[in-house]
Specification:
Chain lengths: 579, 145
Amino acid sequence: MNPKSTSLTPYYRTLTRNIVLLVMVISLAPMVIVTGIILNQFSASYHEKVFAHLEELVLKHKRNIDGFLVEKLENIRFLVEDVDFGKLQQEDMLAEHLSRLQSAYGTVFVDLGIVNEAGQQIAYAGPFKLGNARYADAEWFKQAIHNPYYTSDVFLGLRGSPHFIITVRKPWQGKNYILRATIDFVSFNRLVEQVRIGETGFAYILNREGQFQTKPIFDFTPTRDIYDRYFATLERMEKEVEIQERLDGTGVKCLYVSALLKNGDWLLVYKQVSNDAFSNLHNAQIIAIVFFILGGIVIVALAISMSAKMVRRIATSDTEKEIMNQQVIETGKLASVGELAAGIAHEINNPVAIMVEEAGWLQDLMADGAFESEEDIKEFERALNQIRVQGRRCKEITHKLLSFARKTDSRIEDFEVGPLLEELVSLSAQRAKYSNVELVTHLDEKLPAISASQSELQQVFLNLINNALDAMEKAGGVLEINAHQNDGKIVIEVADNGPGIPKANLARIFDPFFTTKPVGSGTGLGLSICYGIIHKMGGEIAVKSAVDVGTTFSIRLPIKTSESDDPETEETVSETENQ
Amino acid sequence: MEPTRKNHHDSKAIRLLLVDDEKGFVDVLSKRLAKRNIQTTRAHSGTEGIRLLRRSDFDVAVLDLKLEDMDGIEILKIFKKMDPDMPVIMLTGHGSEKASREGMHHGAFDYLTKPHELAELVAKINEAVRHREKTDGNDETASSR
């Protein structure tokens, strides 16, 4: 493991990516939902408001125009009812009444005329020379002669300019006469022209034939079918104002607000391009979206920078943890080696004591001066020989210890577990002897190599053996160490028939600082270190135990597959550790 | 009473029970002690030591705490039960202070760390025997009360 790599490993890159995605989803999703709902609600209520406003506007103007028409009709009716009709037929009287009307209502009334049953104008007052005009074939006349009151559509008529007329039928001396008044188109048109909102909102009036009754500000050809439908809808629905949003002839989405005028003869239409009508809404939406995007960018930037920072911190603390772990392992190694060394010191003390005594014995003999007889010389030889034998014994012990101590680095290398286990068993033999424990090994001859740190693995087994010997110290027993291959792994079992571990402790056995030894005797770190080491190697360690039957630790180590690259191994290690 | 005892010791060798499973060590040590007026009876295991003690009296015992068949402290306890007056000197290895303390607690007279100087051991043996004589006297006055 090389914990000091500055660039992040794939594991941390994945971690960064996941955190960024998570933060983005968590912070953007509610933002999207809330903004969406607010925009939608706002749009709906804004539509409602605009519709209501337009409806009211059109309704107001409808009433206004209808009122205008009714008022003008009433003016004419008053004239017919109130004034002696005989006198009214005199042109100067008619002119006088016209000027009175004009002074009261402005230039709305252009002229007045009286037409007889035959369609012949018999009296006229006004700016045009229409004194004897004949209207027998005029469309309006046909309607007027059959109705008590009549308001015509706008037409060009004899004078050649757009106008419309209001007529009142008057039976007089057994015959029907018609008083007609021409309404000034300009002043009527002004009523509709006033209706202007935004840049594109305007109003116009159509008759049932789809002909303009006013001069629209924007020129276009009305589509007959559509207006027919409006007429029909308004009559059927019995509501005063109808509002619709649809494409106009040029493919632009427009709002159409319509109302019937003149008892259903005319249609007042207000038209506005939707975008214009809802321009405020669109502005608000654009601002909201801009802020949303800016907010999103900030969130994404923060997510990325924070995650990167966080992951770096995690990586640093992982590295620190790794170093700490390494230090704990080192400490644990010192402890277990210390335990081993104590056993070996005992082992070495015996031959040393013998040598010291034999040497002393030789001195005793020399002090007595007895070194001439054959018996004395024999005794000398025996003692010297004993010193040599015991010296050799010391040498063997120190050799074993040295070969163990030499493997101190945690370098990863390929090796076989068999020799390592045998060496450990021989080192522990003396301790086992004193604990009255029989050491038995069953090691498969041809076990494949594993890739690990020898010293760390040594530490694991030394720990397990020491623990087992500690457990069996009082009553003695058998400690079995087995190694075999199974399922692509090397399985090593350290089994004792000691007192076993109670169930309550078994679950906590790999926890750091958990110990059943008296205070000061054990650190409680041994097995947790073993656990850490084995997991770092990508292996598993498990324990089975029954009280009064014994305890078995089994370790499964992955077999070194091929010349697999180290980084991959490293990643598995860090992933296992961070789970 | 006392002079008799003293005379007895001066004239007669000290009877020592040496319990240690390292045969080479026991053999050479007993030879050297014999030259220093200490008659050694050798036991190569805990059980052998107990058997020998049951059979005959000893003035003092030297007991190795690390034995293959039995725990040294256990043997010490048994010795103290069988002959409470017999001083027991323990032989321990380096780093076995805890065992030594435990032994002292269970009535051992003293302890020595292997490997040791013979003079030291002989001094301790003599000291133990002298101590025994003293306490024997005290015990007698105590028991006569």
